[in-house]
Q: What sequence folds into this?
């Protein structure tokens, strides 16, 4: 992508941008003041600004129906090394980031074709990160090494439960490197700073809008509320088919066990990518797209749907959870449970294990409550462990309904396997959740702000990419 713009030093950036503002039409003036046309995208080249639009530059591109390719078709074969606004991305950078993604997905193997698509996407991500970082430097908001190290150390201890040195060793062991993860952290911090300066101050939500939404929610108390994850992939008419196929590959990988959060962080072009695509608790109308609203309304927790074509690209939706607005969710009930487990001796024939499992199910049904569970379980050759503070939603979905229908002293059907042993859960106590008040006005305002910031951020990314100078080897 060739840059079309005035290249200046960081010191003169703001002054030059203000001069450009005065030359633009009224329809663009607001966005210039917001910093959106000087920096719209995932960061732009150091000190890059749009040049004034040349006559005819906004005309529709005319492409004949019958074309003949005269040069070699090398676009799909482009690979690192790539120079982005003066910074180099190497093949090793791509390798390390790919290894990081595969490790986040528990090393789930992927086919050669999908690996090529993944590498292309990773290269695009690295280009975006570089553009972000360079634009933050141009606007004198550079992310320092200390900033990155502090975030890396916090990530190591809080998310991975390791020391920074142990995380270093782990990343090397999976074929990645600390430098690769730190580069991603640097890009995310840079992008966050750009949004905080150039987008967020210029996005507003009126109190009247919040009050109207709050009133509608109060009137609809008891209706369903959704917690949705989204991966957004932008597309143009020219790239539609390629983006759709890429979305299908992403969905296939997640259905084979890939992490939605990891894929959202790497592939989604929405502002929620940094939080794994999580939109939080929303009403269906807050998706603001009739197609997505229709799809999400029928989805069940744990269901993945997509890619779904919407204006500007495709969405992949993951239904994290759903609940009734303003109503207590039975799955938030706090339970006191005993787990009674029976293991089978090594070498026991399968038919004998099946018969023993059936007998075990009948015997535990006869245990007269939690007080006698330990003694009688010992007589059956079983073991007992307890948990007095577990919520129903923390149980596997297959058990949630059964446990919530039980009375104190009752047990679930036998579950497990004839290879690893069988078990039951006995209910010893239950504290139901209190009535929920629903989201507050402040929470609604935050959700509306996040949605508008996300839309502005997408335009920001688009324009910064347009201004970037990218040279392929």
A:
């Amino acid at each position: 992508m060739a840059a079309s713009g005035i290249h200046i030093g960081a010191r003169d950036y703001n002054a030059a941008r203000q001069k450009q503002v005065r030359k633009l039409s009224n329809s663009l003036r607001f966005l210039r003041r917001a910093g959106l046309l000087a920096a719209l995208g995932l960061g732009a080249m150091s000190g890059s600004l749009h040049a004034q639009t040349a006559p005819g530059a906004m005309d529709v591109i005319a492409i004949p129906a019958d074309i003949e390719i005269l040069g070699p078709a090398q676009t799909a074969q482009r690979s690192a090394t790539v120079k982005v606004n003066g910074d180099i991305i190497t093949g090793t950078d791509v390798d390390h980031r790919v290894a990081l993604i595969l490790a986040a997905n528990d090393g789930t193997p992927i086919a050669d074709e999908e690996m090529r698509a993944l590498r292309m996407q990773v290269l695009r991500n690295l280009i975006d990160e570089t553009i972000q970082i360079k634009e933050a430097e141009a606007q004198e908001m550079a992310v320092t090494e200390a900033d990155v190290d502090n975030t890396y150390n916090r990530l190591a201890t809080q998310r991975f439960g390791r020391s920074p040195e142990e995380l270093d060793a782990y990343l090397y062991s999976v074929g990645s490197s600390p430098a690769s993860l730190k580069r991603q952290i640097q890009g995310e911090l840079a992008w966050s700073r750009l949004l905080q300066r150039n987008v967020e101050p210029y996005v507003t939500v009126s109190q009247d809008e919040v009050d109207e939404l709050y009133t509608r929610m109060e009137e609809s108390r008891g209706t369903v509320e959704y917690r949705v994850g989204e991966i957004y992939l932008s597309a143009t008419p020219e790239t539609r088919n390629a983006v759709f196929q890429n979305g299908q590959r992403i969905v296939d990988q997640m259905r084979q066990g890939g992490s939605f959060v990891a894929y959202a962080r790497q592939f989604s072009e929405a502002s929620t990518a940094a939080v794994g695509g999580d939109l939080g608790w929303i009403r269906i109308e807050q998706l603001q797209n009739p197609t997505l609203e229709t799809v999400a309304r029928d989805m069940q927790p744990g269901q993945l749907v997509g890619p779904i074509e919407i204006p500007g690209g495709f969405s992949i939706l993951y239904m994290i959870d759903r609940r009734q607005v303003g109503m207590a969710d039975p799955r938030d009930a706090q339970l006191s449970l005993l787990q009674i487990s029976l293991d089978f001796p090594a070498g026991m024939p399968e038919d004998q294990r099946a018969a023993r499992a059936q007998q075990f199910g009948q015997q535990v049904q006869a245990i007269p409550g939690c007080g006698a569970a330990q003694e009688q379980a010992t007589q059956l050759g079983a073991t007992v462990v307890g948990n007095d503070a577990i919520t129903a939603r923390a149980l596997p979905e297959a058990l949630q309904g059964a446990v919530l229908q039980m009375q104190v002293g009752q047990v679930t059907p036998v579950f497990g396997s004839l290879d690893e042993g069988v078990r039951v859960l006995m209910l010893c106590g239950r504290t139901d959740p209190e009535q929920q008040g629903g989201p507050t006005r402040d929470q609604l305002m935050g959700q509306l702000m996040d949605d508008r910031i996300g839309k502005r951020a997408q335009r920001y990314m688009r324009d910064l990419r347009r201004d970037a100078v990218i040279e392929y080897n």
In short: The first strand starts at residue 5 and ends at 7. Residues 309 and 459 are 19 Å apart (CA to CA). Residues 1-59, 73-79 have pLDDT under 50 and may be disordered. Residues 209-328+437-466 form a domain with the Chitinase A; domain 3 fold (CATH 3.10.50.40).
